[in-house]
Specification:
The complex is a heterodimer of chains A (about 525) and B (about 70).
Chain A (H helix, E strand, L loop, with lengths): L5 H16 L3 H17 L3 H31 L5 H38 L4 E2 L2 H5 L4 E2 L4 H16 L9 H8 L2 H4 L7 H8 L7 H34 L6 H33 L16 H4 L5 H16 L2 H12 L3 H24 L3 H30 L7 H23 L3 H13 L18 H22 L4 H6 L3 H18 L17
Parallel strand pairs in A: 1-2
Helix pairs in contact in A: 2-7, 3-4, 3-6, 3-7, 4-6, 7-9, 10-11, 10-19, 10-21, 11-17, 11-18, 13-15, 14-15, 15-16, 16-17, 17-18
Chain B lengths: L1 H11 L18 H15 L10 H4 L2 H11 L1
Helix pairs in contact in B: 1-2, 1-4
The chains are: A mainly alpha (about 525), B mainly alpha (about 70).
């Protein structure tokens, strides 16, 4: 059941209607769990059992770790801080085997799915088909809930989170239908706290949630699904297109991905907000980023936060790794020590991020591309600072910020070229074609209107992209659009709502025999 | 103690305003700088700071860092 399908929308309306009628916290939680199971079973029963098994493993192991740590809590009384540290280290060693067991089991299923996809196995829905070797079972949202589950397991191991005692609560947040398919990658401890204190109906909050949901549908159905027609046409057969069309497709595919992914986030965050559960923000005006590293603190924020907390920092602060880099520094190799300290964890992060997105070489190269860019950015920052100062360039001026944002946009677009055309061979064709034939006249002779989008569609697409940028510009200035709309008189408010709803109905890309097109990030 | 912690932090990156109480939450300390600060604090005070203590609450301000260091000195 795709988030942009009519059946999903009707189910959500029914879900919310019943939810708002419920008075007791427990009834609300049971209703959320029921909705999660219905949503999940829609993609097959077999996948549900895999998630149940994963939840049981995570629940059992975190409770076991809690038992072990509870002994530390009683024994540490009366000890000095240093003695407590030594005692804790002993108990950590005891919990470590359980932590590794949990990690192994969660990762084993995830790797099985990834390898299955790499070997081009079909996805099957039942254990019978799976048992007869017809394909692989792919649990819905495995790449997302696996990361959240690993994060929860490690948080308990590091004693940053208390384990949940109620299995059903843990299972509810794990399968929470707004975030299971494509994130945001939530911290279970944060979600559990909200699940245990569900707020009462509040008109403003529900309105804001529904508005966010409508804006998400505009992004997905009006902008992303329109742009993808042109970009797919170009990337499926790049050799047939002129250089200028390739450039246009690369630029538009960035906007398409943004509208698609952030549109989905707005839909799911809107639904969640309506019932009083705030999911983490996944996008924060990414096209205003002034560097590659800033871009990734604004784009797919929860994945970046996850890799930082569970990969980058644990590697960078591994005692052996730190000992080695400190020794390098003592030996007079301060620059090399600093370089290694930044590069090694960054390489692991981007290797993982690449593999998380896909298992082909194109994704590995894409990950390496970002790793190299960020390393260069860090190492050349002092030099660039001196250079701009010597040239008299004022880095605080708006034109400089605009140049940096455009540069970051292009860096992201070039990165997309590694993967959008079906692998590295497709990427090579894109680059070849980019310089082989320019044919600038295709911009003016009407050729652009023959690739799936007619003139009117192109105007709507351009208007949509401008709207995306304007909304982001307003948010970047710190203005909350929904609050501004809410402060308007009733006729103005409803004019805005109707405009958005009619935009979805009239300009949404449905096509003959409409079947909801899937979200790009739902495939991970 | 406070002066020494501040000196360590400024030694890592003097351009950061360490009077802030939102060094992590406000995005003033990125991952690379945070790792450098932890490493330098460990060297300067000859202590070990375990990873579970590397949380925003312990690095959002100089005072928070002082409290953390005092725990292990």
């Amino acid at each position: 059941m795709s988030y942009n399908s009519l059946i999903f929308f009707l189910c959500v309306v029914f879900f919310l209607a019943v939810y708002f009628l419920l008075r007791h916290q427990a009834a609300k939680r049971i209703w959320i769990l029921t909705a999660n199971i219905v949503f999940y079973v829609w993609s097959g029963w077999a996948a549900l059992w895999i998630v149940v098994a994963t939840a049981l493993i995570v629940y059992g192991i975190t409770r076991r770790m809690e038992q072990i740590y509870s002994r530390y809590e009683t024994e540490k009384e009366g000890l000095k801080p240093k003695e407590q540290t030594v005692l804790l280290a002993g108990y950590k060693r005891k919990t470590r085997k359980y932590m590794w067991l949990g990690l192994f089991l969660i990762l084993a299923v995830w790797i099985y799915v990834k390898v299955g996809k790499l070997l081009d196995f079909d996805s099957v829905d039942t254990f019978r088909e799976w048992g007869s070797g017809k394909g692989i079972l792919v649990p819905l949202g495995i790449s997302y809930y696996s990361l959240s589950a690993i994060g929860y397991l490690l948080d308990v191991y590091w004693r940053k989170a208390k384990p949940e005692h109620n299995f059903l609560s843990l299972f509810t947040v794990m399968t929470y239908f707004p975030h299971i398919v494509q994130g945001p990658i939530s911290k279970y401890s944060k979600l559990l706290a909200q699940l245990h204190a569900l707020p009462a109906f509040q008109y403003d909050r529900v309105c804001f949630g529904l508005q966010l949901m409508i804006w998400g549908y505009v992004k997905k159905l009006v902008i992303a699904d329109r742009l993808v027609i042109f970009t797919n046409a170009v990337f499926t057969a790049p050799a047939d297109y002129a250089g200028v069309e390739i450039v246009l497709a690369v630029v538009l595919c960035v906007f398409q991905l943004y509208a698609d992914f952030s549109g989905c986030m707005d839909i799911v965050c809107g639904i969640s907000q309506a019932i009083g559960i705030e999911l983490d923000v996944n996008f924060r005006q990414p096209f205003y980023a002034r560097s590659a590293s800033e871009f990734w603190s604004r784009w797919h924020i929860t994945l970046g936060a996850w890799t930082k907390e569970y990969l980058y920092l644990p590697i960078a602060m591994n005692p052996r790794f730190m000992k080695w880099t400190r020794q390098l520094k003592k030996d007079g190799k301060a620059w090399f020590s600093s370089f290694i300290k930044a590069l090694c964890p960054l390489f692991a992060v981007w290797l993982f991020t690449g593999l998380w997105h896909g298992t082909g070489w194109d994704y590995l190269v894409w990950g390496l591309y970002w790793c190299v860019l960020m390393t260069i950015g860090k190492e050349t920052a002092p030099l660039c600072g001196k250079l701009t100062a010597r040239l008299g360039i004022s880095t605080g001026r708006k034109y400089f910020a605009l140049w940096q944002s455009i540069r970051t946009f292009l860096i992201f677009g070039i990165g997309r070229m590694f993967t959008v055309a079906g692998g590295l061979a497709g990427c090579k064709t894109l680059w070849n074609q980019l310089f082989a034939e320019h044919r600038l006249w295709v911009l003016f002779d009407g050729s652009l209107y023959t690739h799936g989008l007619d003139r009117k569609d192109c105007y709507v697409a351009i208007a949509g992209v401008i709207l995306l940028l304007v909304v982001d510009a307003i948010h970047e200035k710190g203005t909350a659009i929904r609050r501004t709309i809410a402060a308007q008189p009733l006729p103005v408010r409803w004019l805005v709502y109707y405009a958005a709803i009619f935009a979805i109905v009239i300009f949404g890309m449905y096509g003959p025999g409409y079947d909801a097109s899937s979200f790009v990030y739902g495939a991970f | 103690m406070r002066e020494k912690v501040l000196a360590v932090c400024e030694g890592v990156d003097a351009s950061i305003d360490f009077s802030s109480t939102e060094l992590i939450d406000g995005g003033l300390l990125d991952s690379v700088t945070l790792v450098e600060i932890v490493s330098e604090l460990m060297d300067a005070f000859e202590i070990d700071i375990p990873y579970e203590d590397v949380v925003p609450e312990n690095f959002n301000s100089i005072d928070a860092m002082v409290r953390l260091v005092e725990k292990y000195v």
